[in-house]
Amino acid sequence: MSDPLSALRASLAEQLAHLRGIPQEELPESLLDVVVRPVELPGGKVRIARPADFEALRDFEGMAPGRPLPYWAQLWPASLVLAMALAESPPGPGRRVIELGCGLGLPSVVAARGGASVLATDGHSDAVAFAAHNFELNGLEGSAVIADMGDDADALVERGPFDLVLAADILYTVPNGDAMINLIPRLLEPNGELWLGDPDRAGGRRFLAAARSLFHVKSTDGDEANLHVLKPR
User: Fold this and answer.
1) Backbone phi and psi for residue 192, each to the nearest 5 degrees, phi listed first
2) CA-CA distance, 76 to 55, in Å (whole number)?
3) If I label 142, which of 96, 104, 160, 198 is the partner at 20 to 30 A Cα–Cα?
4) Which pLDDT score is estimated for 18?
5) With a cut of 50, which residues of the chain have pLDDT below it?
6) Terminus-to-terminus CA distance in the chain, angstroms?
């Protein structure tokens, strides 16, 4: 009988190499050193595959010319806050959900567990590979595609509209906030919502200040990250 973790690593290596357009042997070892960890949530745990040593992967990618830092490879507090909210109030069957900057895809997995039709998106191809595998790891259906919310805004809008937009800790740059404020009204159904997990960064505060003219905002403070629910005015 094959080792499930070895099979997961082999499948990830194949997809990561394909998306990067390189041979598998050129992939960094720190990218393929994968662990699977349970995340305890209301309604039961979900399993998330991720690189075992984030710092090692970050250091390797930081030295590689033209490679973005792999912030996607960490389970950040804002993602956990968003996943907890989704576990407590699942979107339910028939709801169309998109996650922007999905990273490992934890909120997307939890939304899919609730029965929603989920599209996980990220501009980083490695993140999309892991998110797709995390759907499969939990026996769930969901789509994961490479898409940047700025450069690929029109393509994302064509996939909508959506009942629920998810985003966790993606407002760490001014361009990301500007892209979000332009994109969200185009993505949402008239009665749709944006659920935003944010660790109270300056970029998040800037986005919320700009968004209040377009959305009703309800915020819940957490220890390490806050949850903001935005509904169109």
Assistant:
1) -75, 175
2) 14
3) 198
4) 97
5) 1
6) 56
Three-state SS at 169: coil
User: Domains in the chain and their CATH numbers?
Assistant: 4-70 (no CATH), 73-232 (3.40.50.150)
Cα separations in angstroms, 71 against 37, 67, 156: 18, 12, 22
189: which residues sit within 8 A by CB, 6+ positions away? 96, 160, 161, 162, 163
143 neighbors 120 (Cβ within 8 angstroms): yes
User: Residue type for 22, please?
Assistant: I
Q: What is the pLDDT of residue 2?
A: 59
Query: DSSP alpha helices (H): ranges in the chain?
Result: 4-20, 29-32, 54-63, 77-88, 106-113, 125-137, 153-158, 174-187, 202-211
CA distance linking residue 193 with residue 170, whole number of Å: 17
CB 78, CB 169: distance < 8 Å: yes
CA dihedral 94, 97, 102, 106 (to 10 degrees): -40
Q: Whole-angstrom Cα distance, residue 165 to residue 229?
A: 10
Query: Which token pair is 202?
Result: 């300056």
The pLDDT, as a whole number, for residue 13 is 97
pTM score over 0.90: yes
And the tokens for 101?
Answer: 């900057």
Are 114 and 82 in contact, with CB atoms under 8 Å apart? no
